[in-house]
Specification:
This protein has 356 residues and is α+β, with helices and mostly antiparallel strands. Helices cover 62% and strands 11% of the residues. It is built from eight helices and six strands; from the N terminus they run ββαββββααααααα. A six-stranded antiparallel sheet has the order 2-1-3-4-5-6, covered by helices on one side. It is flat, with a radius of gyration of 66 Å.
């Protein structure tokens, strides 16, 4: 059941909110006050009629009609684009791509309204002024007979199409059978072609064997020619091996002599080093004595530096002490001059300070 209707910028309605109750709801108003526009707004949501923009208010703004039902809300909006919004307490769906005549199926099923539910003031009485054909069409829709008629028409159409297709296929089969008679010689030709293909394969196989034999024969000739060319070299193989063996022995002897030469050079260098180390050992004891004296001199020098630093510090302390004693004497003289014999705080006699 429709609980409320909210109209915005639809003809004369800028902002209209209508609340409905159970039973009969009556809308009263003078002529041209917008009563029919309310039905027109409902038709715009239910059947997407009227189309165009003539019903939109002249003052501009987004045009919308919202129908609030028990569990769903349906809103139709028209501005730069058109949109249906179907919402409930948990979800919301938006429909934008629909034709001029089409209303989304979800919207139609939710509203569940027909022309019987929306009768205008000037509409003719329902089915009374309709022609017999219109009445029959309406009741066929109510009883869903129109669906049966449409289904029967579709089936008959499919039967006609299949019958025509069968006739065409039969004619095609007949034509192919007649054409087949003209190609009976192909079976015999096929056998002959298979025999020729087998013979061709045998020729290819034997040709391959001939090529392999030819390659093998050419390889044998090349090996024979190389053997004859290298026969003279084989005669010289034994003397050449002896020469190579002697050369290898000579190379080993040369390497051994080089190692001995390097060893002797190292031995001479070691002897020279031992002579130098012997000379150093002779002066080791005097050198150690000199180094000990140098270390003692360094220690005495460090002690001397410490004593000089201590004397300098003592002199500084003595100078500071003399300055502090002189400052004390001067302060006592100043105090004696400024301080009376009777203390202004405790009124007792003050012993005068003697000058030193």
């Amino acid at each position: 059941m429709i609980q409320s209707l909210k109209i915005r910028n639809f003809q004369s309605h800028k902002k209209t909110d209508l609340q409905f109750v159970d039973g009969v709801n009556v809308i009263i108003g003078s002529s041209d006050s917008g009563k029919s526009t309310i039905i027109r707004a409902l038709r715009w949501v239910v059947w997407n009629k009227p189309s165009g923009n003539a019903f939109r208010s002249t003052w501009g703004g987004e045009t919308s009609v919202k129908i609030e039902m028990d569990s769903h809300h349906i809103t139709r909006i028209k501005d730069k684009a058109e949109e249906y919004i179907l919402s409930d307490s948990t979800d919301s769906l938006s429909f934008k791509a629909f034709g001029k005549e089409g209303v989304p199926v979800e919207i139609s099923n939710t509203l569940n309204l027909s022309e019987i539910n929306l009768q205008a003031q000037h509409d003719s009485p329902f089915l009374i002024s309709a022609t017999p054909g219109e009445v029959a069409t309406h009741f066929n829709k109510v009883a869903r007979l129109d669906k049966i008629d449409q289904a029967t028409a579709n089936v008959n159409k499919w039967v006609r199409e299949l019958t025509a297709d069968i006739k065409y296929k039969d004619a095609e089969v007949k034509r192919l059978e007649e054409q087949k008679e003209t190609f009976r010689y192909l079976q015999k030709m096929e056998i002959e072609i298979e025999v020729l293909e087998e013979m061709q394969n045998q020729v290819k196989s034997k040709g391959k064997k001939v090529n392999d034999l030819s390659v093998l024969f050419n390889s044998w000739l090349n090996v024979s020619m190389e053997k004859n060319e290298k026969a003279a070299i084989l005669v010289l193989e034994m003397p050449l091996n002896n020469i190579l063996s002697l050369y290898e022995q000579k190379r080993l002897r040369f390497e051994e002599s080089e190692r001995l030469r390097i060893f002797l050079i190292g031995f001479d260098q070691i002897n020279e080093g031992l002579e130098e180390y012997g000379k150093l050992l002779e002066i080791e004891t005097p050198l150690n004595n000199i180094l000990g004296l140098i270390e003692k001199k360094k220690a005495l020098f460090l002690r001397l530096q410490g004593l000089k630093q201590a004397v300098s510090t003592l002199n500084d302390i003595s100078t500071n002490l003399k300055e502090m004693i002189e400052n004390k004497r001067l302060l006592e003289i100043a105090f004696k001059k400024e301080m009376p014999l009777i203390c202004p705080l405790c009124e007792s006699y003050v012993q005068p300070i003697k000058n030193k």
